[in-house]
Design a protein that fits this description.
13% strand, 380 residues, 3-stranded antiparallel β-sheet, alpha/beta, 12 strands, 7-stranded mixed β-sheet
């Protein structure tokens, strides 16, 4: 007789059909995984668009203080942080939901709006996590190509109308190319998005963009959600804190499904202190600008072209097809310099280099010509 309680004698309960069809993969290969595989630490970690300049000292102090009270849960209503964000943006706290980074909030958004078989329109090669969440909810993804290394608002809207899309996803400034549209173009997209389509406007890099890129907030529109983060210029990527701004009755829906203790006590304290330290943020933005200029100089010195960037990274055109850019990336890794690259042609002719310290840039200066020489030899 089979012991019905012996799990070893039975198959695991089945997954849902949607989950069963998905690949068991991590969307991003982290530098830690690459370090484990190689057995060596990177000397310059300038590939994940983190802020190597770190968080505000005031944020570090606030987190250290909060760490003594981590036996307590964080405020599930995130009242203090919401109020501070509302004051910063001139909106009501009811217009803001906070979650585990933009990625976590986009997962909730997919759960709120994406039914199996329905469509999201995005750009081919754009930041991929929203695709991951849509697929996890059984959604269908329609991707339109970039136009001149920019996401194409007109093509996105045309596809959204044609496909009767539930969601259209637009990133400005853009990752992975660092390109941007001005506020007028973004506002036209906001104005022209069909009422039945939710526009997700990812503005993770808004702090590093020049003036005139981010249109004013309008929290009266029911079909626009604007996403911001503490992970980039504010240097808190390891905490996972992001927020979304929208109409109050729309934003309130996040309370139906979010993890109410997902943003912990230390994260709330650090984010609040970082938000208040405007001088530190200004100094980081200045350092990012300086590093972008240095990356452009290093690229030019090696016969490569750095694309204009409104972000904390620079896409560097390697001047050949994706196989060559991939070889350059791998050769840089061999020298301890971690960078990334776009995954879709023709964007994949580039490598993507995050802003770094002077020491990081010195390492890139010495490593890039050797990587180019080795890549050319490998592919000759």
């Amino acid at each position: 007789m089979i012991d019905k309680h012996n799990a070893a004698d039975h198959l695991a309960p089945p997954l849902t059909p949607i989950a069963d069809d998905l690949p068991s993969t991590v969307p991003f290969v982290g530098p830690e995984a690459l370090e484990r595989a190689s057995g060596a630490m990177f000397r310059a970690r300038i590939g994940a668009n983190e802020s190597v300049f770190g968080p505000s000292p005031a944020a570090i102090e606030a987190m250290a203080t909060a760490a003594r009270e981590t036996w307590k849960y964080g405020d599930p209503e995130l009242c203090d942080l919401k109020s501070a964000l509302a004051a910063k943006h001139g909106v009501s706290p009811d217009n803001i939901a906070i979650g585990e980074g933009i990625d976590g909030l986009q997962a909730y958004t997919a759960r709120l709006y994406m039914r199996p078989g329905e469509t999201m329109v995005t750009s081919a090669g754009a930041y991929p996590t929203m695709n991951y969440h849509v697929a996890g909810n059984g959604g269908r993804i329609v991707a339109v190509p970039f136009a001149g290394d920019h996401e194409d608002p007109e093509a996105l809207l045309s596809a959204a109308v044609r496909e009767k899309a539930r969601i259209v996803f637009f990133v400005n400034p853009d990752n992975p190319m660092g390109s941007w549209h001005d506020a007028g173009a973004v506002q036209r997209m906001i104005d022209d998005t069909p009422a039945e389509t939710m526009l997700l406007l990812d503005e993770a890099y808004c702090e590093t963009a020049p003036s005139g890129v981010v249109p004013p907030l309008d929290v009266d529109r029911p079909n626009v959600l604007r996403f911001r983060t503490f992970s980039k210029a504010m240097g808190l990527a390891g905490l996972r804190v992001g927020y979304v701004i929208g109409r109050a009755d729309v934003v309130r829906n996040f309370d139906k499904i979010r993890n109410h203790f997902g943003v912990g006590r230390v994260a709330q304290a650090g984010a609040l202190a970082a938000l208040e330290d405007v001088d530190w943020l200004s100094s980081v933005i200045a350092q990012i600008k300086e590093s972008r200029e240095r990356i452009s100089e290093i690229a030019a010195r090696n016969g490569l072209t750095a694309l204009p960037s409104a972000t904390n990274f620079v896409a560097v055109d390697c001047g050949a097809a994706g196989a060559f850019a991939r070889a350059v990336l791998e050769e840089l890794g061999e020298q301890g310099v971690f960078v990334r690259m776009p995954g879709v042609a023709p964007l994949d002719r580039c490598i993507r280099i995050s802003a770094g310290t002077a020491a990081d840039m010195d390492l890139l200066t010495s490593a890039l010509p050797l990587a180019l020489q080795a890549a050319r030899a490998r592919l000759s």
